[in-house]
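cron nightly-structures :: item 1 of 1
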Amino acid sequence: MKAIVLAAGYGTRLSPLSNYLPKPLIPILGKPLLGHILQKLNRSGITDIGINMHHHADLVRQFVAAQDKGLRISLSYEPEILGVAGGIGAFRKFLKDELFFMLHNGDVLSTIPVDRLAVRYQEKRPLMAMVLHNHPAYNNVAVAPDGSICDLRDTLRPAHVARKLAYTGIAFMDAKVLDFIPAQGPAGLIPVCLDIIRGGKHRIEALIVDGCAWRDVGTVQSYFEVHRELLAERTALLPDMAVPADGRFLAEDVACEEGSQLRGFVSVGRRCVLKKNSIIENAILWDDVTIEEGVHIRDAIVGRKFIVHAG
């Protein structure tokens, strides 16, 4: 199975962090978010991956060029952002001769078992299957009593709804879904799904998961909180990564001078320097940051050219 990772957005909710890196490349415990997603897909047996890009596309290209050659990655540059469905449509050549494929948002971390869900999808092979879970803040996908998706965002208001759940950002699609996507130009996935539901000829299945860790990393606050969850609360969002037991992640080449202190949960990137008597407390430092002597950084995200307070 091939997969498409959506990575073309501006990441405006992550501003000002997204001024310096595209959202999929923001570091989580020293590794870009996109790197964690690719590792998850690779572990699930998916090695042919399409990635769309727009914002800071040159940085995405550099990142992809440095990946393990065991991954076969196809890039789709969008001079104009095409939206989710339009972004999928731009991969028609990549998907040629494929019967079905997987979709994964580029701003989501989870322990959702995509390999097992792929098997479940292939058992029924609906036109589309959206992976759903119970997350009250985002529960806007209506599931009918027969397990099909019958509405999105209270648009169609069907008479019979069994429950409402949240879309995880992961889906499986028959290649025939491309017939519902315009050949060129922007297109949203929600209007495409609603057209399919209205048409009544094809089924969008609900693949429901329970008990899986999940985190959207789309805002400054959620980016900060995912580090708290990983380091302080030991949430198993990164099953392939050994999270430090003391709640402090330091890249191998960090320099800590005499009297510098780490407090609370801390993630410190490569080539960072903590000068004498500096204090880092509940903070995320990107690569190449120097904290000057005696400075106390608390509840913040710090890059070479910015400091953003959170917490």
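cron nightly-structures :: done
The mean pLDDT is 95.
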